[in-house]
Amino acid sequence: MYVCLCKGVSDRKIRESVSDGARSWREVQQETGCGTQCGKCACVGKAIAREAITSE
Ligand code: FES
């Protein structure tokens, strides 16, 4: 499912960025662009990134 419509980032893309080495929400943002435009998706994006990071 798409988390970020502005940048077209899916939950899968966020998880991929974590398995590729992103270790914080900020790094996920830098890599995917999620939450860097309107910011509406930041809350959900951050939660998915955190969950993925803690389960790494
Ligand atoms: Fe993600 Fe707008 S929906 S920045």
TrEMBL record:
GO MF annotations in UniProt: 2 iron, 2 sulfur cluster binding; metal ion binding
Residue span, BFD-like [2Fe-2S]-binding domain: 2-42
Cofactor(s) required for function per UniProt: [2Fe-2S] cluster
UniProt keyword terms in alphabetical order: 2Fe-2S, Electron transport, Iron, Iron-sulfur, Metal-binding, Transport
Highest taxon in the source lineage: Bacteria
Record-stated family: Belongs to the Bfd family.
Full protein name: Bacterioferritin-associated ferredoxin
Source species of the chain: Billgrantia kenyensis
Organism placement in taxonomy: Bacteria, Pseudomonadati, Pseudomonadota, Gammaproteobacteria, Oceanospirillales
